[in-house]
Amino acid sequence: MLGEIATMTGYVKAPRTTYAVKHPLKARKMARVRHEIEDAFTPGRLALGLSVLVAIPLGIWLGRRYAQVRRARAETD
Question: What is the distance between the terminal CA atoms of the chain, rounded to a whole angstrom?
Fold first, then answer.
């Protein structure tokens, strides 16, 4: 009973520290995932990903448009 009260008090005052003390392996895994997510979504990588998302459809559209124009010119010649 007294241990449960102490645990609950610990969770109220410092939940992250208390969780890390009671579940060290899970806390380490959670910290690693949090760190990897922070490293994965850097502004440069986001900009690169967004530029690829814009460039591919734009390139497809331009290629189709170019082929359409060439066909139209070939028919008039």
Answer: 93
What are 32-70's pLDDT values in tens digits? 988 888 878 888 888 998 999 999 999 999 999 999 999
> Which amino acid, 53?
L
Tokens (6 digits) for 72: 């139209």
* Residues 62-73: tens digit of each pLDDT: 999 999 999 999
Residue 7 CB coordination number (10 Å): 13
Distance CA 22, CA 25 (A): 9
Instruction: Check: CB of residue 69 under 8 Å from CB of residue 61.
Output: no
